[in-house]
Design brief:
Elements (H helix, E strand, L loop, with lengths): L2 E5 L11 H7 L13 E8 L19 H13 L2 E5 H6 L17 H10 L6 E6 L18 E7 L1 H12 L7 E5 L9 H10 L4 E4 L3 H9 L5 E6 L26 E8 L5 E7 L3
Parallel strand pairs: 2-7, 2-8, 3-4, 3-7, 4-5, 5-6
Antiparallel strand pairs: 1-9, 8-10, 9-10
Amino acid sequence: MLNTLYEKKGTTGRSVLTPALRRFYGGGLVFPNVSDRAYVVGNFVQGVDGPVTFGKGNKNLLFGCREDRLVMSILRALADAVIVGKETLLDDPPGATWHWKTTTPEGEASTLREFARHVGKRETQKNVFVSATGAGFDFSRSVFHDSDVQAVIATTTGGANRLKKDIEGLSVLPRVAIWSLDDASGGVDLKGLIAKLWQGGSRFVLIEGGPALYGSFEAENLLDELFLTQRPMIVGNGKDAPRPTVSGFSHREGKLTELVSIKKGVDDVLFFRHRYSRK
């Protein structure tokens, strides 16, 4: 169970949690009422010194704490769509999906299934992968064949053409939709992506990385909240082993957030919740 160290007063609304998850979370989990757009939330785990990963190709020793996995599963069960970058997809094991069933700690599957029903979510969920080039996808991965997942690749016109050619040559066709969303600079139109998800019924969107992609959403002022787990671990950073922090983007004047809550788990793991201003 998480212990609440700080909770900001004034947020109104009904807690989305079931009684079992309220006991775990140390109280309710309330989100502001937003009715005209998707509510966009990020979720990361970091070390005390800031990095969120041990670098490309290295096992991320920050991830794996039981309480962090349960918070991640709650957010995934709330989400209509989970967005990650292509490199994050490729860094995970071939059997990975971005669905609550793959992160739920042992013994908690029925609790999360009850929660998903409680918040009106079907078990099927969109997993969206962002790639401007459309190159390098491995369509043998489970996420492209799992009946609980609606896989989407958000790309550019050129990336879409490449993907269609790659898929045509496969003996087993993946379950994937390809969305062409060009922005003016030749990348993926992230505002257009969130708008398209909203139009398709996604009301709660979760972004899980990587840092460069998250920073791009941040730069476009598309984020509402950040859930940030801090493990009591010094990760280190350097030219020979670059280990990025959450944003992956340099803001000219910084970007202020409002602290919503701090909770503490076992082994001194801290759970921060921050809210962005979208004015």
